[in-house]
Design brief:
Radius of gyration: 19 Å
Number of strands: 11
CATH architecture of the largest domain: 2-Layer Sandwich
Distance between the termini: 14 Å
Shape: globular
CATH class of the largest domain: Alpha Beta
Structural class: alpha+beta
Helix content: 25-40%
CATH topology of the largest domain: Ribosomal Protein S5, domain 2
Oligomer: single chain
Strand content: 25-35%
Bound molecules: L-homoserine
Amino acid sequence: MDSIKIFSPATVANVSCGFDVLGFCLDSIGDEMIIHKTLEKGIRITKIKGAELPFETEKNVAGVSALAMYNAINPDCGFDIEIYKKIKPGSGIGSSAASAAGSVFGMNVLLGNPLDKTELTKYALKGEALASECEHADNLAPAIFGGFTLVRSVDPVDILQLPTPDDLYVTLIHPQIEIKTAEARAILPKQIALQNAITQWSNVGSLVHALHTNDYDLLSKSLSDVIIEPHRKQLIPYFDTIKSSAIDSGALGCGISGSGPSIFALTKGEKIAKHVEKAFNSVYSKTNIKYYTFVSKINTQGIKIL
Ligand code: HSE
């Protein structure tokens, strides 16, 4: 096999309480990429559709992660990468992670899978760092492993796969404004109050327990963020109204997806997810901000060959 087409999914990072550690994978939106194995050595980005991104390998997220892997294993071939972006950069649903994960996943398959998912995450982190100026793996891990993941450590990379309750759905609204992850990180405080830290880590622990025990009530109680959301929500128009509309419509919880501007709500069952989507539409259709909404199941497979 000399060419491969892949689907690299969008993801929701943080999941309210788990800044930089928790994430889950979406199945209704993702990028497509085609990777070709070539006789000519080196990594080239040969096509980009759907977004204005640099073709220079060293300036492109997919190129940087590909180069990190390529230089480490030094294969006797090269790779051409075509990128078909469906996830808008700066949308808060893991656009850079999808690109960074896609190139290393595709190269690995074409080389006969010499690397495991943890090693792929390690190289993809280099691309993610180019976009957000920080090595965080909470979008990469769910894109590469699927389902819910917890990043125990990035150095060394250590990813835990968490169970996904069967009936869990997500409703997402993407207001069409761009928030750069690096800027959304720059507004965060460098120090936090001990009481807030206690609240946050108790919620991370209980959310993980809720996923293991299929406990939707506990999951709902755990979906709270007292550290990041109070600072970032000002970047997102009508965030509080959207969040109240989700809770009033029966969502288990609602929060900022990654660094925003997308907002996610988790629900038990598709019917409630659709109610929440209607509620999101009724809030944003009254504004002059362009947006789109969608409902998705949690994608337990992650990145895949098409
Ligand atoms: N954990 C990262 C952040 C995710 O919130 O900055 C960025 O998508």
